[in-house]
């Protein structure tokens, strides 16, 4: 049987063509663009955020993120580091170089090395969450970034200067004791650069 009109059929997924990347969440408190090449991780993040009333839009890599970010207009973007076509750090750099997305909160969700954390800070990433992570860490991180964005947007309407930049958050897995860096990963909780 042929696929229905407007449906693209691939080896591992079937997705309608066009802007159908998100599931609408009635009364959503915000929108997050989740960028990860691992479908299971995208789904894990989606489910946890949707349970908290946050709308989620997904992209499979940095190139797809850049293709849809202006249409989607997310409140926060989460990025994996290692992805095909365009990795998370180069995607973050491109988002920061675009005036329309320069102030958009960016979080890296990856098994980050210290080098990747430092490179992320250099390109303007706001927060880091080490994989594996606890769902509450993910939700808290995204909500914090959305709140900071809301404060920045509110300050602009009042002609008060504000930025999303500055020190980001580094959040490690709650399964670890949380004492500094282990095996080259940033596994501590706190402000990046602190």
From TrEMBL:
- Please state every residue range assigned to the domain named Response regulatory: 31-146
InterPro entries named in the record: Bact_response_regulator, CheY-like_superfamily, Sig_transdc_resp-reg_receiver
Q: What is this protein called?
A: Response regulator
Which Pfam families is this protein grouped with? Response_reg
**Which PROSITE patterns does this chain map to?**
RESPONSE_REGULATORY
Q: 4-aspartylphosphate (modified residue): where?
A: 80
Keywords for this protein:
Phosphoprotein
Q: Where is this region: Disordered?
A: 163-194
Domain of life assignment: Bacteria
The UniProt regions of compositional bias labelled Basic and acidic residues, in chain numbering, are 176-194
